[in-house]
Amino acid sequence: MATFSYIAIYPNGKKVRGTAESESSFALANQMRQQGITVISAEIINKSKSGISIWKRSLGPGKKVKTEELVVFFRQLATMVEAGVQLVDSLALLSEQTENANFSEVVKKIKIQVEGGANFSFALSQFPRIFPTLTVAMVKVAEIGGNLGGILEQLASYIDDQDKINKKIKSATSYPRFILIFFLAVVMAVVFVLVPKFKDIFEGFGAQLPQATLIVLAFSNFMKDNLIAEFLILTGIIIASKLFLKNKTGRRIYHGYMFKLPIAGKIILKSILARFTKTLGTLVASGVGLVDALTVAGETSNNVVIQAMIENVKLNVTGGGSLAQSLEKHPIFPSMMVKMIAVGEESGALESMLNKVSEFYERQLNATIDSLTAIIEPVMMIGLGILALFVVIALYLPVFQMSGAISG
């Protein structure tokens, strides 16, 4: 048992604050509902001996679940709901079929809450790491409109589409990352193992070394002689970077600078625009109000600069301005996107136009990534080959010179 501080409305309409013991805040709300009392909020004020609150243990945020598992879950749930199967029965069946033990346990807890009278959207909101704000918002609209099956199918398609974009970006960057890490490992081996051995050989002969060899030896000596300083500098950079990104101003500077990066900046912007318009279109099509939809869509950008702009757009829309006019005030949103949205608003087909804008940027993003991948691989191979050739020549040229002098 745990103690909760709660705010509730009694049958006479009076709002009351109080404390009560219960296994969870959901159980507390259920108990008081049976007495005609509506719980507005409930927060735990003590914890179990293990240091983990009973609420957190029973209805915590949950571990992350693979995107494929979420897509299958929502698609199967949509199929069963549209076939007339009760939501509780559908959740019970899916909890048994889910192979992921952690996810299965989460689905069981959601089923228990729904069975006890909680809304499906509320039950999902208890696991924010698995079911983000977008998911909860769409399900909440479905509960109001009575189209749960159709919206769950839309949600599954949306998650699947976003996963494809993310995988495309990861695939494009995985090869360069692998080559770079491999090359750094080779350089470390050369600097700390191979070069010192050659240094002993060169000193034994006492010959005049070429400039390229002197550069490689000087670099090796510098790296070996300053290991502690290098470690401290690297650690300092990592800590400073994390602190900088935790700071609101620092995060805004970094997120704004991302758009100015050559090539990568365009990819980041197109990815954000595609995700933003796709999310906004999906929410509007599901029946979510434009202002609320902008709030959720802004969060999916994961960029504080864009989020600040969306907040300004929301204020303009709330004040009676159109979405297109509000977006037009921020140059980061392309004029083509603004014009298409304006046409959608005028024709009453905003959600359809938003989806078309999203598809356009997704195609552009895919084309940019494909062309960049085709260019970056040979460029990296040539660059690394030239650097490797320089090191080999620098190390072996003195050996060839000394061999020639001995034979001559």
Secondary structure layout plus pairing:
Blueprint (H helix, E strand, L loop, with lengths): L1 E8 L5 E8 L2 H9 L4 E7 L9 H6 L7 H16 L4 H11 L3 H15 L4 H6 L7 H13 L2 H58 L5 H15 L1 H20 L1 H11 L5 H23 L3 H10 L4 H15 L4 H6 L6 H13 L2 H58 L1
Antiparallel strand pairs: 1-2, 1-3
Could you walk me through the main structural features you see in this protein, from its secondary elements to its overall organization?
- The protein has 408 residues and is mainly alpha-helical.
- It has 3 domains: 2-59; 67-160, Type II secretion system (T2SS), domain F (Receptor-associated Protein, Up-down Bundle), CATH 1.20.81.30; 172-408, Type II secretion system (T2SS), domain F (Receptor-associated Protein, Up-down Bundle), CATH 1.20.81.
- The chain is built from 17 helices and 3 strands.
- The chain has helices spanning 25-33, 54-59, 67-82, 87-97, 101-115, 120-125, 133-145, 148-205, 211-225, 227-246, 248-258, 264-286, 290-299, 304-318, 323-328, 335-347, 350-407, and strands at 2-9, 15-22, 38-44.
- It has a 3-stranded antiparallel β-sheet, covered by helices on one side.
- A hairpin with a 5-residue loop joins strand 1 and strand 2.
- Helix 8 runs parallel beside helix 17 and helix 10 (227-246) packs across helix 11.
- The longest helix is centred in the middle third of the chain and has 58 residues, at 148-205.
- It is elongated.
- The N and C termini lie far apart (92 Å).
